[in-house]
Design brief:
The protein is α/β, with parallel strands linked by helices. It has a single domain, classed as Maf protein (Alpha-Beta Complex). The protein is 31% helix and 27% strand. The chain contains 6 helices and 7 strands, in the order E-H-E-H-E-E-H-E-E-H-E-H-H. Strands 1, 2, 3, 4, 5, 6 and 7 form a 7-stranded mixed β-sheet that branches.
Amino acid sequence: MPRRLILASASPQRRAILEQVGIAFEARPANVEEASEGDPSEVAEGNARLKAEAVARAGELVLGADTLVSIGGEILGKPADEAQARSHLAALGGRTHAVIGGFVLAEDGDVALTGVERTLVSFRPLTPGLIDWYVSTGEWKGRAGAYAIQGAGAALVTGIQGDYLNVVGLPLARLLDLRPDLLPAA
């Protein structure tokens, strides 16, 4: 039986994903300054590493994760305000973008494994009225790319290629491919 997992995140989406499959964990959010520029895959993995290392202790299994939205190589982070949310959504409208999920698992204070998952998400063309509607939901707050696919943001999406849960906030399939022992025993 694996040690109890420490989730180095305050994300309610990551908590829900782990709970959904019965993985026991304790949330211990990492207070780190995340990078927002550079190669999206390297930035996602690097931010996940920072989070895991910030809370890792000997004798513990710690999961750090980061989710980025990238279009044309540019990272669209969490918008600071409504104007930036509108700008992010306008940039995504009618296009396909990448959601990059990075994770790092640290054991006994040392990085044991890392992974990066890429999911493509296609948006319908977004009219000013549709953007106004979505921004009015407030769901964009604290969300990479200014949307949440698992909520009202589903109305913006026409399709995805890849791992849905990666877009929500944690590439669970990839993580479990590397560490199937995280699942509870039958």
